[in-house]
# Entry
Amino acid sequence: MSTRSVILDEIVRIAEQQKKKLAPLTDDLPLLGSGLDSLCIAVLVATLDDTLGIDPFDRDGDVPFPVTIGDFISLYENAPA
# Structure
């Protein structure tokens, strides 16, 4: 399973769990306009850390917060393992 599909599946699962209505998930959709709130995004990051073993926000230097779904996925796809 690709990193992209894991992330998208987790977004859908968390939204269902938190009873959030998602917008259609496209790469150019703003992350904060997706229907997920900040708590959902925090849960997503923690879940991806467990699932993928990657936390791109836990590395040296400032990591700019991803603006779009595509930016978020790229951040994980390009993060060092």
